[in-house]
Amino acid sequence: MGSKFLSALSEEAYLKLTDKLYGIQSGQCFICQKKIDLALQTTNIDHIIPLKTRGKDSEDNFALTHESCNKSKLDANLNIARILCHLKEIQDRVFVDSGRAASLKDVLASFGGSKYDFKHKISNDKIEFSFSDVRENDIQIKDIYEDILTGNQTGKIEKTCFTDVPIEYIYHDDAINPRGINTSISRLVKEFYKGNPQLHLCLARIDDNKLKIFDGQHKAVAQILLGNKRLLLRIFIDPNVDRLTETNTNAGSTLRQIAFDKSIMRQLNNTLYTEKIDKFQADHHLAEDDFSFSEQQLVDYFKGENVNMKKYISDSIKHSITYSKENKLKDYIDFEGKAKELPISYSAFSKAILEQVVDSKQFLDTPINYKSEEGLNPREMQINQIVELLNIIAEEIYIGKFKPEIGVYRIEQKIIDKKDVEITTEHLTAYRMSKEEIIFNWFIYLNKVIESYFNNTGRIYEANQLFMEKFDDQLWANIRNFINNLSILPLWKDKSMASTIFAGKKNYDYWKEIFEKGKSPDGAQVLATPLNFIEMIRSEKQ
Questions:
Q1: Both 64 and 113 in a single domain?
Q2: Which of 175, 391, 363, 324 is nearest to 264 (CA)?
């Protein structure tokens, strides 16, 4: 909605208002809070509270912004836009520094949180504590409540108390809730900004004298962004961490209470797997560094949780591969499922790659630490070699070629509309090769490259244990040649296919036929000849 007030101003009056707002805002953009240079930068004057939400069309409701900030603002209300801009800066910084999504941990760090231990003592049904590090020296005494239902199965009743806590004493619980901040945060910020309370407390536990929030992360973030320096918590005292983790996991899977994507579920299951190992060691009076038992022994021992235990092991392996510090491909995986900058959805990575290289039904009967010192531990070798494979894929297809600033949004449509000047051939190739149905099919050929090498060298192998066998240098060269030669096939850069072959999502069989016959199911010629993985491992192929 346009401003009648601004429209009625002469050019001179508009400049005077600009100077006035510039002075009021100490020369800073209202949205990004960074310096404005009136001689070098274009600015806008905009309503702080939009007219459509009953903001006034007068000077006291105007703010000065960089034009670029105003055009890309994340909300019509400039107060909220400023908050979300600050959050985006945190998110961008965390992603650049560590390649992960920002979480409550990072927001707390930016707002002065997570500084002090929670000093407390418990006597009978009371907990006593003080926040003396922030000059709150009164001793607080709170009632401890018992959740009787939790004791029905395990015999251990969960005990909790309720209190508001300065953010300096609050930490994020990475173990139980490793999720990053998702797009729902903007809606929460708006709700809190309106003064609408949320009907759910943040849940925290005491761990090593620290208060760690494991549930209600987004509500905590929204409140902190809006300036809250204290959060109301339900605090679990000496909780059963295994039970809390399982409960949090079930909320995102079985019960569907919260939207956990598969990557987060695997991270949680990885935590649960560690907890089961700890319990097995304790039950068998083993030292913490004693891993002389096997995966199969764990499955057999926790037979009442057989299905879950198998999933914990499988997901732990997949999590170790995905989040390996050495994994260069993870920089190109969209873990949130909503990004428009990254080429590989986590679903595609999981279904088309992880599930082809990790057998979820295979559990080793050799000790977990078997031949670790010699560098021949089968699980460790599997994880390390799969990561090396992912690195080759990243180097040959994505690094220095795919441009996140261009992203993946409506790529084929931009080509159809002739708005593709910025889309390079290498970027288009990486984008097209990243579709789930396409990755799945070319990965089948990649597995054939590995199997063929073992066959030709006379090595006996199990199909589901390929990556547990040490790869020779020549095999790695074959893999790199295959991926390189695959990436230079003409179809990936052929823009005439934007409205046909690459239009919309195709099923797996569609691309299976293209790779096997060179033609699409409707007879369109896509490849000059069917894929031949033997020819494609030759380095001289152009």
A1: no
A2: 175
